[in-house]
Amino acid sequence: MKLEPGDAAPDFTLPAADGTTVSLEQYRGRRVILYFYPAAMTPGCTKQACDFRDSLASLTSAGLAVLGVSKDTPAKLAKFVERDALTFPLLSDPELEVHKAYDAYGEKTMYGKTTVGVIRSTFVIDADGKVEKALYNVKATGHVARLRRELGVD
Predict the structure, then answer these.
(1) Which residues pair with 36 in a beta bridge?
(2) Of the residues 5, 68, 101, 105, which has the maximum number of CB atoms within 10 A of its CB?
(3) Is 50 a catalytic residue?
(4) Residues 41 and 80 sit within 8 Å (Cβ to Cβ)
(5) Boundaries of each Thioredoxin domain copy (predicted)?
(6) Whole-Å CA distances, 48 to 54, 129, 139
(7) Is the full-model pTM beyond 0.85?
């Protein structure tokens, strides 16, 4: 079931690239951009992560935290963070439990072929833990700029 605005955002606790654990509950009282991406260090995912990195100051100023989630191991995520100087938490969900809770894993069409995998998705979660925006099948390029426009972030 795809999440809709107003739904309770599924809570989670996941290991981060830096060895800590991060839970959605830690961010209660703040708005969160939670995004799911297929694989660290691939071209599209790198573009998207770097766009979030480059926009982080304005997003933070607007009261938004950014969390990225993939099925990669914390060790691979740590390399991604270091290689691209990423400045927000990247979380590891190798069992895909959180992906599935957000309906960010399943059937998708790539190049006209139906496959099963990670669905590039972004959620804006409000300070009370409710879904404000649920965006599925987003494009890596231009997504952060579109999100900033929709959220009124300069």
Answers:
(1) 69, 121
(2) 68
(3) no
(4) yes
(5) 3-154
(6) 10, 24, 9
(7) yes
